[in-house]
Write a structure and sequence with these properties.
2 copies of one chain form a homodimer.
Chain A: E1 2-14, H1 21-27, E2 33-37, H2 41-44, H3 47-58, E3 62-65, H4 74-87, E4 91-96, H5 98-112, H6 118-121, E5 133-137, E6 149-154, E7 159-164, E8 172-175, H7 185-203, H8 211-233, H9 238-252, H10 267-279, H11 283-298, H12 303-314, H13 322-339, H14 346-349, H15 355-365, H16 381-391
Parallel strand pairs in A: 1-8, 2-3, 2-4, 4-5, 5-8
Antiparallel strand pairs in A: 6-7
Helix pairs in contact in A: 1-3, 4-5, 7-8, 7-9, 7-11, 8-9, 8-12, 10-11, 10-15, 11-13, 11-16, 12-13, 15-16
Chain lengths: 392, 392
């Protein structure tokens, strides 16, 4: 098959990267910028001041819109679109993590295109373009700083939906690992799990993986696992934070699927979206809570692939019994998740869905009977329900 | 320090990728295209017909310019610039390997900017822009399909000079591994060596490498070594050709240096440029012929890095004696080169420079006393001469 690799985002990585925002916007000819950020830490840390000083220095007018929460809300997106249109902004600068960037992408679609922006997320129609977006990253996790992806939560119905398009790949991303020193241990673990899962969702797919892509994927996951632990041990370990930050971008920019037979599986992501749509849990933790149950449900479809993963990531020797090797690999991954205080089921995640809620999750995950999930193994309604139940 | 990763090239990889040239040029609004190619195989294989049919179908006018030779000549570049200006082309489509792409990049600079294009290659001035370039790749080696690099040979003085700028990164690259089935065993080996060296030049630098970048680099080299051998054993092994092709792009697009303290060493490349400038040898073979002598001259500067490389690429256990491990690694790499029929010295490369020619090579490599080489260890004139002599 034909695969596409397209990552036009200009990345500046390392020392004082965030101090190049004004210069990048100036060079791109920005006339007015919507500076979008989260719930206060960008202000408290002085980062926002650093940003606005640069814009002042370059003589670029701007408006501010803060208040993005994890699982970014459609209501704030609407507010940003209204503000951006009123102020006639032609660029958006996202200062924060994945939620801020995803919110900025949605606002970018909404300003550029007439009509309701939720139409794109609910697959009703496609956008014709988007405002250009710059990023100053403060959290290593979602990879939204280079990805084509944006995920928004609609409070009306508790729906969390993603929309993917090359139109929203950021024009530039400024990555300074020092800005992630203050990320809490819990969020560091959630980020580590999220980064790993972006590559794991791509690694476990039907058909063949290009050997180079497989090997780069397993190298990345191994490196992330080691450095996630190091960042927990010492939050100001520059090397650890740098490895997590760059891995965050590479894990979701398309590199880890190029040449593969398929774009990935993504059923854990889709099942987690319903979980955090309903219970507002952290995305990375939700993924960790589901993965083991998914893996046990599907591994017999291609146990050799799980065994290869165990060899490349954990250094296990192949025993000749792929199913046994696969199970050993799944257990080792759950052990790793536990070692960084990530949950491996919903109880550990702190939620306890009723039978009725399991039905609701299942129903929503199938888009109310309109789709199956996954490619490694195609998951029908009953498979999805069984995985939710096993993960409870 | 701050590093940049910028790879805007849209890559289509896999089945019938070459059949998307017309569609890509149409979408980009190309008005007239210079189709640039090599010395006949693109014609004989029918590839050129496939390209012109697409342009005819899309109604895009074009002019043809073939005849690019390995170590592409400045004289043909001048011819292309004249033709392109006369015909008022606004796009270049390179159909071939690194020499064709590099020649196309030079023509792109020359059409866009007034004055002598050689000025850019001889560091006299910088270009303001370039024509956009599309690529249909037929040889996995130089990585020019995504890189910022172009190397041209000036017949006047036997000078081979490179110029690097983001301006010349191709807009799109169409990568179909099947198009490399007919690459000869010798060119397959040269390509394998070239791909490996693009990452090795970056791996061996002063200062620290980002662990993720180190690990991805060693994974890539290991994968290339295996698949180079497989492609020699079976030239129509799709998987082997696909791994080499994608590795070619990733090895030189900047991925393998992001987050590192420096952009790389590059002294082997610079010494090889003089070698092929004077003797017109194949670039990949020239690199292999020099690398061992370079490595033995410099390894004591940071033998731990060579030992790490041996561990990551050859799976050697660390003995505790880094210098011994480094020497073992250098020998293993030379053994690998021999195993794919690559030379590890100039005799095996088929040349036998006189003492006077060694002086000339040395003099030219220093840009006539104006520069040192390398960053892993800074090479003065006497170091360069010693390496040339050791490689003789």
């Amino acid at each position: 098959m034909l695969t596409q690799y397209y990552t036009p985002t200009k990345v500046l990585f390392g020392e004082d990267a965030e101090m190049h925002a004004g210069e990048q916007l100036k060079a791109a000819g920005a006339r007015k910028v919507l500076v979008h950020y989260g719930s206060g830490s960008a202000v408290k840390s002085g980062l926002l001041d650093k940003v606005t000083s640069q814009l002042d220095k370059e003589g670029i007018p701007y408006v501010l819109l803060g208040g993005v929460k994890p699982n970014p809300r459609l209501s704030l997106v609407y507010e940003g679109i209204e503000l951006g249109k009123k102020e006639n902004v032609d660029w958006i600068l996202a200062v924060g993590g994945g939620s801020v960037i995803d919110s900025a992408k949605a606002i970018g679609y909404g300003i550029y295109n007439p009509g309701d922006v939720w139409d794109f997320y609910s697959s009703k129609r496609k956008p014709a373009g988007s405002l250009p977006i710059g990023v100053i990253l403060t959290l290593s996790a979602t990879g939204s700083e280079m990805s084509d992806s944006s995920v928004i939560s609609n409070e009306d119905g508790g729906l969390k939906r993603g929309y993917n398009s090359d139109l929203c790949r950021p024009a530039f991303a400024l990555l300074n690992p020092v800005l992630t020193y203050t990320v809490s241990p819990y969020q560091t673990s959630c980020g580590t799990a999220d980064i790993m899962m972006h590559t794991m969702e791509r690694f476990f797919h039907a058909g063949k993986g290009l050997e180079l892509t497989d090997n780069l994927s397993m190298s990345l996951i191994r490196t992330v696992m080691e450095n996630g632990r190091k960042a927990l041990d010492n939050p100001e370990d520059y090397e650890a934070r740098a490895n997590l930050m760059w891995a965050s971008s590479l894990s979701h920019n398309g590199l880890m699927q190029t040449g593969n037979d398929q774009r990935g599986d993504w059923s854990c992501h889709q099942m987690e979206h319903e979980l955090s749509g309903l219970f507002d849990v952290a995305h990375g933790a939700g993924l960790a809570a589901i993965w083991g149950s998914w893996a046990r449900h599907v591994y017999k479809t291609d146990s050799a692939r799980f065994a290869l993963f165990g060899e490349g990531v954990f250094g296990f020797s192949r025993s000749g019994n792929d199913e046994a090797d696969a199970l050993r690999t799944i257990e080792a991954m759950e052990d790793y998740f536990r070692s960084i205080s990530m949950p491996v089921n919903m109880k550990e995640l702190g939620i306890d869905p009723t039978d009725e809620e399991i039905e609701t999750l299942t129903e929503k995950a199938t888009f109310f009977g309109k789709r199956t999930l996954g490619s490694f193994m195609t998951l029908e309604r009953e498979d999805i329900k069984a995985i939710y139940l096993a993960a409870r």
